[in-house]
Amino acid sequence: MTDDVAPSPAPEPAAAAAPVAGYRRPGTGRVGIRELARALDLSVSTVSRALNGYADVSAATRARVERGARELGYAPKAFARRLASGQPQAVALVLPASPDSFGDPFFLTLMSGLGEVLSAAGLDMVVSCVPSGPAETQHYDDLIRRGAVDGAVLCRMRRDDARVRLLHQAGLPFVCLGSTDADRPAARIDFDLETGFRRLAGRLLAAGHTRIAFIEPPAGLRTGEDRKRGVLGAFADHHLAPDERLFVAGGFDTASGYRKTRELMSRSDPPTAIMAANDLCALGVLQALSDDGLRAGDDVAVTGCDDMALARYTSPALTTLTLPVAEAARRLGAMLLTRMRGPPEVPPDPLVMPVEPVWRVSHLCGAL
Question: Which domain holds residue 30?
């Protein structure tokens, strides 16, 4: 067995990138550090120092060790001890990497509610900010392989969600805020946003608005599909067909609301009402209308979603939907604790929580 730790500051020779043998500890799907070292023909100290980023291990050896750890399913001993003792210590919450993520009241309320329950149980919450998509799934995989967390809370669910498949395969307890089409069920809580947006759009249609624009959430999110189904359902209720050219891809941020509103209002046949994906997006809508010399509630009807604290203080006050985010977060935390402490079981039936419109001023104008 060779030892690649350099005895002096001089750099060590590059290690060969030989294929890793398919060693597995008998009876498990994981290997410990000794098995990993044996498979790579390195000393335990070298493997340990490579995994912990010590500078006296060459970049080539470190890459070889990290590749071997991924391929063989290496699990740090600390994680193995926690699994054996039944004493979990940390829960992962990964948020989308965007300028508004940590300023979004929705996520702040979610973190607060989860933290309240988890801290009372002696658990830490590991919060990360990672771009949505493959990078997010890879981040969860890295957390699991490093033994950094013992459970996870997923949000912004997708129809085909790789995160759900990964966590099921890894056997890591998790809960979801939102639904997915995964083959295996998962414990989850959802908001009835379809009904909420149906009620908002229905009120606008009853006021005579037929040219209703919808600034949609980011593509691929189930919550976006729920919102859109609600808007379309309201048109169907009134036996009307929407102009889906006014349904534009946007986001949950103020900048997208501003940008998309400027585009919509520059049309030769602009909308008389604009439904924003959430309240942050609606703030951008209000500002764009103001910059065009228009006023929400007088010239164009505007609605949001989330009922953040600022919504009642905008000019005019924003009509929106209120979501029981704090209660949902606490219930998610309790559900996760049950799954982390008990034996594997069939997930409970999904809990769908109602949302309610908050009728203020921004929606009040009728269609011209």
Answer: 1-74
